[in-house]
Amino acid sequence: MVVGVLDIKLALPECRSLKDKRRIVSSLKDRLRHRHNVSVAEVDQQDLWQVANVAVAQVSADARYVRGSLEQVVKVVSQFRGAQLTSYTIEVFHQ
User: Fold this and answer.
1) What single DSSP character describes residue 54?
2) What is the pTM of this model?
3) Which letter, b or e, does each residue of 40-72 get, where b requires 16 or more Cβ atoms within 10 Å of its Cβ?
4) What is the spatial distance between Cα 84 and Cα 93, in angstroms, rounded to a whole number?
5) Could you give the number of structural domains in the chain?
6) Residue 41 lies in a domain
7) What is the pLDDT of residue 15?
């Protein structure tokens, strides 16, 4: 079993409230879940308006598939309207 974890840091410059932030982050999470079949959660900085930290997890038997899938998620996030990708890390764990 191979587990991949993607930690994404986002800037949300257009957000003026937590409601704006929730709208953007929820939309991004829904898009990633449905298009890439991954688990997605906002994991940190939930009380700050203009930043978000989102974690994405992928499980498979093939490490190359996991890494490739998470790299595709990074591409989608980097093009997502309303959010700017500031940094990310991909970790792959073998069990």
Assistant:
1) E
2) 0.89
3) bebeeeeeeeebbbbebebebeeeeebbebbee
4) 27
5) 1
6) yes
7) 87
Residue linked to tokens 């079949």? 37
Residue keyed to tokens 């409601």: 19
Q: Which domain holds residue 22?
A: 2-85
Cα dist from 6 to 15, 19, 53, 59, 74, whole Å: 23, 25, 10, 12, 8
> Nearest Cα to 27, choosing from 80, 85, 86?
80
Which CATH number do you get for residue 68?
3.30.70.1120
At residue 74, the 3 state secondary structure works out as helix
- For position 60, what pLDDT does the model report? 93
Q: Label the pairing between strands 84-94 and 2-11.
A: antiparallel
Report pLDDT digits (tens) over 8-65: 999 998 888 888 899 999 999 999 999 999 999 999 877 788 899 999 999 999 999 9
Residue 27 lies in a domain: yes
